[in-house]
Each structure stands twice: as structure tokens, then as C-alpha cells.
Amino acid sequence: MPFKININEFLLLPYPIFDVRSPIEYNKGHIPEAINLPLFTNEERAIIGTAYFKQGRGEAIKIGLEKVQSKLVDFVESVNKIAKGQNIRLHCWRGGMRSQNMAWLLETAGYKVYLLEGGYKSYRHYVLKYFEKEFSFIVIGGMTGVGKTEILKLLESNSEQVIDFEGLANHKGSVFGHLGQATQPTTEYFENLIYNEISKFSVNKTIFIEDESISIGNVFIPNNLFKQITNATKIIIQRRINERIKRLISEYACYDKNELITSIKRIERRIGGDIVKYIITNIKNENYFDAISEILKYYDKLYKLNFNKTSLGKTTFLNIDELSNDEILNRLLLHSKKLNNGTN
């Protein structure tokens, strides 16, 4: 018999996780380290679902058995390649027939199987509930191009607790933020990735994050976390405008001009057709300094408009123009300590 365990026990075990839901369910969102071992294809699942509603449970089970019987050996061989005789963890959507049947097969093949009570649904409930905890966030803010992501990496290299939302979202947040990035996850999977990172940290220690709007490209930060980010203490990074422009040129001028032009056209309604034409002309002429300078006028204005709405906690400013990485790190940690102690 498989061992049915709750989500807390399930996540603590070191064994491989197999998710037996269909590929479409898995791709919408899954436990980050889980491997998809679908009992049914998307098409088979649809056929069985239709049979259940139109002909009843018995007919649906019969069709399911017909679809699965030719794949039993393949299931075992797939698990053998990954688990290599280890114990395994297994789940479906609600801990129902799909995971129970796969557990029976794999136990017959010699595996000790741990089944997740409530399935992936219980995992999702657990993740969203986890975001209701109070975290000790310090938000690294600043205008586009000051180097917030690099500062997070600097903090991470010093073994500080850091969550890179943009890295998890596969998007850098700006109009060019998708360039050079993998396909964005779904919001559901993005939430799972955030949980996977934040659950490793001490809740009582500072967690450094980058200042973000609630949406990063096409994904959204969970509401409970975003409320905390809005009210968290912030360190606003400042850098000379010319340095910001140079940094952005270094980051984006390497991409194809047509990709840059297509990207800038997406905000044409917001910044105006004439300005977009001016930016496009400069991109075509490889005059990236003037193109980026004009784009920053829009983003700087937007940043100033939103600053008071999204900066409700304590705030301090740090100009890093003349500072080395070691000096930036020391200043950040000093500011963090002062902000957390309530001093200025």
C-alpha cells in the first residue's frame, strides 16, 4: 500500500516527485522539481471527462483502462530512468484515482510510493497560505537603469537572502524586458517558483528584493506579497543619468534592431507617435544614446508618479556613482540595519 502523507511531510522528503496529471495541467503549474508522468494525454483526458459526464463513472473508468493498458511498461521504464530504485513521491490533482492507480503499478514494480493527500490542489493551497506570513523585506528601488538586479546579485554573493522576481518571471520589467529571455511561466507556476525560493529562507531575517509593479511582463506577484512589498522599507539607488543610459545601451544594443523597434511600438499609445518615430529613427541609425534617453524620460516620469503610491514604508536613498562593489555592499547592509532598527 502507498503511504499517504500531508503536504508538510511530502515536501520534506528527498525522493523524486512524479506528477501524473496531463501535460496541459502540468504546464499550467506544478511543483518546481516535479517530473511529468502523465497517466493520460490531453486528448485522452478530454475523452474520459466527456464520457464521465455523458455516460457515467463506470464508462469513464472503462475507457481509462483501455487507454492505459498499453502504456504500463513505458511508465515503469520512465520511472526507472530517473528514480533508479529509490523511493518516490507521487501526486495527481486531488489525490484521486490517477495517482492511486499509478502508485499501485509502481509498487508492483518494486517502488515504495509516498502519495500526497489532496494532490496538487493541497500544494497550491499551502503555497498561497504561505504568502500570508509576514516577511522582513528590504526593497531595492530606483529608476530604470540604475542596476537593481546587479545589486541583488551582489547581495546574494555575500550570502544574503535574495529573491530575484524578474529572474523567476523571465522578464526584466521594461519594454525590452522580454528580449533574450526564455518563455514566461504562467502566473500559477511563477507563484510556485517564488514559494520554492522564499521557503528556503528564515522569515525573521532580511530578504532583499527588487522594487516591482504587481505585474512583470505577463505574470503577477501574489497579492499578499505585493501588499508587504508596498509597505516594506526601501533603499532607493541613485545613479547619474548618463551612467544609466550607458548601462542600458550595453544591455540592449546587442539585440536585433527590428526586435527593439517592435518592442518600442508596444508603448506607442502611452508615449505618443511622434516620440516613437524619433526613437525608431535613432535605433535604425544606431544612435542608441538618444533613443534610450528618450525612453527614460517616459520611465522616469512614470516612476515619479507611482513612487508615493508604492513606497508607503520607510525610505532611504543611496547614490552609488563613485562607489566600488564592496562599498555598495557595505552601505546597503548599513542602511538595512538602520532601517530595521528604526533609525535614520
Polypeptide structure, described:
Helix 3 (42-55) runs antiparallel to helix 4 (57-68) and helix 13 (257-265) runs antiparallel to helix 15 (273-284). This protein has a five-stranded parallel beta sheet. The protein has a five-stranded parallel beta sheet with strand order 7-8-6-11-12, sandwiched between helices. Strands 9-10 form a two-stranded antiparallel ribbon. The chain folds into two domains: 3-128, 3-Layer(aba) Sandwich (Oxidized Rhodanese, domain 1); 133-341, 3-Layer(aba) Sandwich (Rossmann fold), CATH 3.40.50. The protein contains 17 helices and twelve strands. Strand 2, helix 2 (23-28) and strand 3 (35-36) form a beta-alpha-beta unit. By secondary structure, it is α/β, with parallel strands linked by helices. Helix content is 54%, strand content 13%. It has helices at residues 7-12, 23-28, 42-55, 57-68, 72-83, 97-108, 119-130, 148-157, 165-169, 187-198, 223-231, 241-252, 257-265, 268-271, 273-284, 288-310, 325-341; strands spanning 3-5, 17-19, 35-36, 88-91, 113-116, 136-142, 161-163, 206-210, 215-216, 219-220, 233-238, 315-319. The mean pLDDT is 92.
Key attributes of the depicted protein:
alpha/beta, Oxidized Rhodanese, domain 1, Rossmann fold, 5-stranded parallel sheet, about 15% strand
